[in-house]
Amino acid sequence: MLSSRLKNVTPSVTVAISSKVKEMKSNRINVINLSIGEPDFTIPEKAKEYGKKSLDDNKTKYDLVAGILELREAICEKLNKENEISYTPDQIVLSSGAKNSITNTILAVTDPGDEILLPLPYWVSYSEIIKITNAIPIEVPTKKENNFKVTKSDLAKVVTDKTKMIVITNPSNPTGAVYTRDELMEIAEFCLEKGIYIIADEIYEKIRFNDSFVSIASLSENIKNITITINGFAKSVAMTGMRLGYTASNTEIAKAMSTIQSHIVSHPSLTSQYIGLGALRECEEDMNHMVQTYKKRCELITKRLDKIKNISYVEPSGAFYIFIDLSKVKEKYKYKNSFSVEFCQNFLEEEKVAVVPGEAFGIDEYIRISYACHEDEFLEGINRLEKYINKFI
Question: Region 290-317: what's the mean pLDDT?
Answer without folding.
Answer: 96
